[in-house]
Amino acid sequence: MAVKIDKKIKGYSVLTPEDKAREAAPPVQVESISRAKAEAELPKADIIHMHERIERPEVLVGSTYKIKSPLVEHAMYVTINDIVLNAGTEHELRRPFEIFINSKSMEHFQWIVALTRIMSAVFRKGGDVTFLVDEMKAVFDPRGGYFKAGGVYMPSLVAELGAIVEEHMKSIGLIHDPEMSDHQRAILAEKRKQYEDRAKKNSEITPTTISSPPPRGDARRAEGALLAQALQAPPTPQAPPKTSPSPATAPASRPPPPSATSATPRRSSSWTAARRA
């Protein structure tokens, strides 16, 4: 096929397949590349993480918990204050910042002050601070633990402090409760059903066995069996009759009763002979 050239040729170049693809591409691709470059040049939001250089605000939010232990005379009040990071953004996070323990009892004042200062320093350090819960709950008192309200056993006073810190971290979302698996839920549901069936069966059987009288025919047969057993049983031996003690064995303090001969007056022998004649 012949091509007619109307203009003067000033230069030439070889057209490659890449050049053909670049010419065929729509101009939208160029716009998307320029938009991506513009977004990359925009300043990103700075996410504030917990570290030691964060200064304490004037106002902190927190919670106060009460401990009533038999190991101490007065109650102890634990206050945990939190700091809110990235407030008002999607990265908002609430973390513990400091802890205080107050009580009238001064017996444990030294180690309480030391413990609260160390825990507050760990809170301000940042990172994962949930390990404090496991470390504190593993402390045991050599004198023995105690049961707090609700029947929960506490091995020591420090362990109860760890339980309070754990409860507070759960309330602010720093610790999440592990969920049970489907297998564990199925086993728990089966055990609950067995318990409910057993309790229902006991409630249906117990009133009938106690309150309902036996049938009349059964009562007559039982009376006949008891009567036959009584007739066939050997006679029970009787106890020997009680005998009154003889005068020889009678107590010396009680005089013997007077005999009939002693009470009758004596008669003369002549009167007796005349009576016989």
**Number of β-strand runs:** 5
Strand order of the biggest β-sheet = 1-2-3
Radius of gyration: 53 Å
Q: Which percent band covers the strand fraction? A: 5-15%
Percentage of residues in helical conformation: 40-55%
Along the chain, the helix and strand elements come as: HHEEEHHEEHHHHH
- The overall pLDDT, averaged over residues, is 76
Count up the helices.
9
Content-based structural category: alpha+beta
C-alpha termini separation: 206 Å
Largest sheet: 3 strands, antiparallel
In short:
By secondary structure, the chain is α+β, with helices and mostly antiparallel strands. It is 43% helix and 12% strand.
Question: Would you write up a description of this structure?
Answer:
- There is one protein chain.
- The protein has 277 residues and is an alpha+beta fold.
- The chain has a domain of 111 residues.
- Helices cover 43% and strands 12% of the residues.
- It has 9 helices and 5 strands; from the N terminus they run ααβββααββααααα.
- The strands form 2 sheets. The protein has a 3-stranded antiparallel sheet with strand order 1-2-3. A two-stranded antiparallel sheet has the order 4-5.
- Strand 2 and strand 3 form a beta hairpin.
- Helix 4 packs antiparallel against helix 5.
- The chain starts with 16 loop residues before the first helix and ends with a helix.
- The model has no long low-confidence stretch (mean pLDDT 76).
